[in-house]
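Project outcomes to date are best conveyed with an example. Our students and postdoctoral researchers have been running inverse folding experiments weekly, and each run begins with a structure described purely in tokens. The record below, which covers 419 residues, was selected by the lab manager from last quarter's runs and is presented without edits.
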């Protein structure tokens, strides 16, 4: 990750839940990036994962209580010196103790001392997560600038499923990296917004085994979805079936294959959306004819593959909105991947595309030479229909997502404001 300094001091707190084992992956995430990690489990976390595991993974001593290492005044020093504190899993009890400002063990003492960004990744049974006490504790912690993650939905301890599952270590790590890059809490400024995001590439079948596809990995669309959900939005992703990424916490994912399937899915979901972000790489063309049986070599093999034009879904949305078939205040964001040529540079082509598509915001990426597609970092510009142009410096796709959502929320605020 290029937007993250190496060698920072990270405290990984571990609460006493069955998901404590996932903290091991998170510790690795930080040590592999060159950070110094101090693990502070609660006493009950050690019922699930042994101290030796945390010491071996972090390369540092591990204590749970304030009296274990009195000469170093650890309960003061660790929080004071930390660049980031991440607690995963944060149990209902730990959240309650943190919200109450208690300091009855090393972890809560460290949380009270910390002035750096703090990220809590809750994990508990759905009933506990939805209990008014936990809801109030999460709200209290958020009001104090703590980033409390939305948990994932899925298998819990035993046979139960529901909201309350700990997000995967990479997802917690990505949000932690974003906190470090922004040096600020993740705002809850998308609460109540319904956001529809398309991601990945479409696949246009030629016969039962072959298709016309593209190199989109879906990473940028998923990064947007993950962050919009953490900013409080209700998020649906419509993803190409070639996307192989874990479902972001608290995001609903629907899978499609072709551009026309994407159009059907987008058209069905768009009337309910406040924001539509078309991050998908939609194939402009599809094979004109689908061969029901695999095309064989030899006699009868085609010399050429005739193509038909696919619908432009983004332009279609803008048109529907103009006709009053979509909410007038719906915000529509398009993406453009451009290269420069004899006619002009990427910006020249991006500006022309924004005018052509008629969307409110265009995310412009320069592509080619290994940029944008399949990689973890990106750079580009944000072009607004109001003529605004913002450069997005090179950074992780999570950081890009953060800048794009900042622009989206700023546009929404302007639309909602007095004038
Ligand atoms: O025209 P171009 O493919 O460069 O435009 C890119 C933008 O338009 C992206 O937001 C993409 O999701 C959207 N698009 C679309 N339908 C198409 C082609 C692109 O919605 N057929």
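After processing, the design step wrote out the following sequence:
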């Amino acid at each position: 990750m290029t937007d993250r300094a190496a060698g920072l001091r990270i405290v990984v707190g571990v609460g006493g839940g069955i998901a404590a084992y996932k903290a091991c992956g998170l510790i690795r995430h930080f040590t592999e990036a060159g950070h110094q990690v101090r693990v502070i489990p609660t006493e009950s976390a050690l019922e699930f994962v042994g101290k030796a595991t945390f010491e071996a993974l972090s390369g540092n001593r591990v204590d749970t209580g304030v009296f274990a290492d009195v000469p170093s005044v650890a309960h003061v020093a660790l929080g004071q010196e930390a660049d980031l504190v991440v607690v995963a899993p944060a149990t209902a009890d730990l959240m309650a103790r943190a919200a109450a400002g208690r300091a009855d063990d090393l972890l809560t003492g460290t949380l009270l001392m910390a002035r750096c960004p703090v990220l809590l990744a809750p994990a508990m049974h759905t009933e506990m997560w939805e209990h008014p006490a936990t809801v109030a504790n999460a709200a209290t912690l958020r009001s104090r600038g703590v980033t409390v993650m939305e948990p994932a939905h899925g298998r819990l301890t035993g046979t139960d499923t529901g909201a309350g599952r700990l997000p995967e270590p990479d997802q917690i790590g990505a949000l932690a990296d974003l906190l470090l890059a922004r040096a600020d809490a993740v705002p809850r400024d998308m609460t109540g917004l319904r956001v529809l995001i398309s991601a990945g590439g479409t696949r246009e079948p030629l016969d039962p085994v072959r298709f016309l596809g593209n190199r989109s990995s879906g990473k940028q669309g998923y990064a947007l979805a993950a962050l919009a959900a953490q900013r409080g939005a209700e998020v649906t992703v419509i993803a190409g079936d070639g996307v192989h990424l874990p479902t972001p916490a608290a995001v609903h994912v629907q899978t499609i294959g072709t551009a026309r399937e994407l159009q059907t899915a987008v058209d069905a979901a768009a009337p309910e959306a406040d924001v539509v972000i078309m991050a998908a790489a939609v194939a402009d063309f599809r094979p004109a004819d689908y061969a029901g049986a695999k095309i064989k070599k030899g006699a009868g093999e085609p010399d050429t593959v005739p193509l038909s034009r696919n619908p432009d879904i983004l332009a279609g949305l803008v048109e529907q909105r103009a006709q009053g078939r979509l909410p007038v205040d719906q915000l529509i964001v398009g993406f453009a991947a451009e290269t420069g040529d004899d006619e002009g540079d990427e910006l020249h082509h991006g500006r022309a595309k924004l005018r052509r598509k008629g969307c409110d915001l265009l995310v412009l990426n320069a592509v080619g030479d290994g940029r944008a597609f399949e990689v973890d970092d990106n750079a580009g510009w944000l072009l607004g229909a109001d003529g605004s142009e913002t450069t997005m410096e090179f950074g992780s796709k999570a950081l890009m997502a953060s800048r794009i959502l900042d622009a989206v929320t700023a546009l929404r605020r302007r639309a909602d404001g007095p004038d």
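The chain has two domains: 9-182, 194-416. Residues 198, 259, 278, 280, 282, 284, 310, 312-314, 334-336 surround cytidine-5'-monophosphate (CB under 6 Å). The training component of this project remains on track.
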